Amino acid sequence: MIEFRNVTKRFPDGTVAVDAFDLVIPSRKTTVFVGSSGCGKTTLLRMINRMVEPTGGTVAIDGEDVASKQAVALRRSIGYVMQNSGLMPHFTVAENIATVPRLTGRTRRAARARALELMDVVGLDTAMADRYPSQLSGGQQQRVGVARGLASDPNILLMDEPFGAVDPIVRAELQRELIRLQRDLDKTVVFVTHDVDEAFLLGDQVAILAKGARRLQFGSPSEITEQPADDFVAAFIGAERGKRALRVKQTPHGPVLVDAEGRTQGVLVEGGA
Amino acid sequence: MEWVTGNLDLIGSLTLDHLRQSVIAIAAGFALSLPLGWVAWRYRLLRGWVITVTGLLYTIPSLALLMILPVVAGYPATSETNLVIALTIYAVAIMVRAVTDGLDAVDPAVRRSATAVGYGDARRFWAVDLPLAGPVILAGLRVTAVSTISLATVGILVGVTNLGYLFTNGLQRRIIPEVLAGIVAVALVALLIDLLLMLAGRALMPWARAEAPRRSSTAAEAAA
């Protein structure tokens, strides 16, 4: 469980990135922060592993204030995956994945064994173990990034727009993979994105944020779609358009659902769950 | 050519002297430039000062430096130490800037990523910052090495013997092949050291070669 209690972050230049933010993030669920760029969502994420120190309030993991923990040890105990993979260009794939185990004192051999095991987990061919990141495609690099985040088997995985820089097809593939992984691994995932569809696809809980990390709504994707807190949220999630605004159309073969443009999006199945 | 074949022993021993003096100066200059370059990179306020002052060292005329240093430091002008220290000063003048530029060239996102996964500051410097600054530092080191080897010949003017001897002796005795032999020997020494540095760079930084050229082929693989 990660708790934000009245957390504020004011940068030295006076901008307030986060203003009195409160939230409890449940364990073993995927929680997504979604909002436009500059809304403070990444700052929130970085306060969990002390990459950014709050200027007010506390961030606590399982009731313990992160400020009371040693920053370097804290970061090693939390997985971190970022945009553009953030891989070390001078480490091979296996060395990159083994970074944290090596930092925490595992032997080279044990760390490499762990790296190869994780390559399997994230769907990478182990033949790539000795390549450098620049020799991989964007999607493969991102998988290495996820494997590195998982290497020390952390309870918490922080993901900062990890799929933001890959093309839509690869992104969809990585998203499916993350859902599969999360089903097996059961981590506390905190995921930051500006893409509402991604947020609703991955999140058990979604926090919709406005400038200053002001929380507009927090709930499951279904709750938010069924009952947007206000017009802004409704507009932000696109409740009036696309595949979130469907109406029933009767056809000779039964009812189907069509969107605002009249395109059929699916078949209405009676009596389903 | 006759002169050269008759004096191979002399050329050989002068070459060894030359190598010893240059290599010590290059190594010492490199070792001193790392902390100085780091300070200039790390502390913005000191940066202008460190870069300018060390850069200005290069403007001191070499002959003047070789004559002033012994007076200030109290060793004989003809000692090898005198030449080695002067060459070290010139090496520092070039290398500090290369170290600072190299550290500057490290992608801040990679640095942030290293911190995020749990590198402490010192460990990050040795494992991430310094290796990634490597290609730029190596480029500076190669320039320094060649320049030091060529500059070392000036030592003969204050009585430090090395390949420079072939120039002065050849000119005084009007033996042109001796002068030419000197030029060729200096060039060969410089090429040899440059080659060794390049090979060392390849061995220590295999990733640097993997970076650029493979990109197009991986893009093709990804598309396939």
From TrEMBL, chain A:
Residues 2-237 form the ABC transporter domain. Its EC number is 7.6.2.9. Keywords: ATP-binding, Nucleotide-binding, Transport. It is an enzyme of class 7 (translocase). InterPro entries: AAA+_ATPase, ABC_transporter-like_ATP-bd, ABC_transporter-like_CS, P-loop_NTPase. GO terms for molecular function: ABC-type quaternary ammonium compound transporting activity; ATP binding; ATP hydrolysis activity. This is ABC-type quaternary amine transporter.
UniProtKB/TrEMBL annotation, chain B:
Pfam families: BPD_transp_1 (PF00528). Residues 15-201 form the ABC transmembrane type-1 domain. One of its GO terms (cellular component) is plasma membrane. Its main location: membrane. The chain crosses the membrane at residues 23-41, 48-71, 149-167, 179-200. PROSITE patterns: ABC_TM1. InterPro entries: ABC_transp_perm/SBD (IPR051204), MetI-like (IPR000515), MetI-like_sf (IPR035906). GO terms for biological process: glycine betaine transport; transmembrane transport. It is found in: Cell membrane; Membrane. CDD domains: TM_PBP2 (cd06261). It is a multi-pass membrane protein. Keywords: Membrane, Transmembrane, Transmembrane helix, Transport. Belongs to the binding-protein-dependent transport system permease family. This is ABC transporter permease subunit. It comes from Glycomyces terrestris. The lineage of its organism: Bacteria, Bacillati, Actinomycetota, Actinomycetes, Glycomycetales.
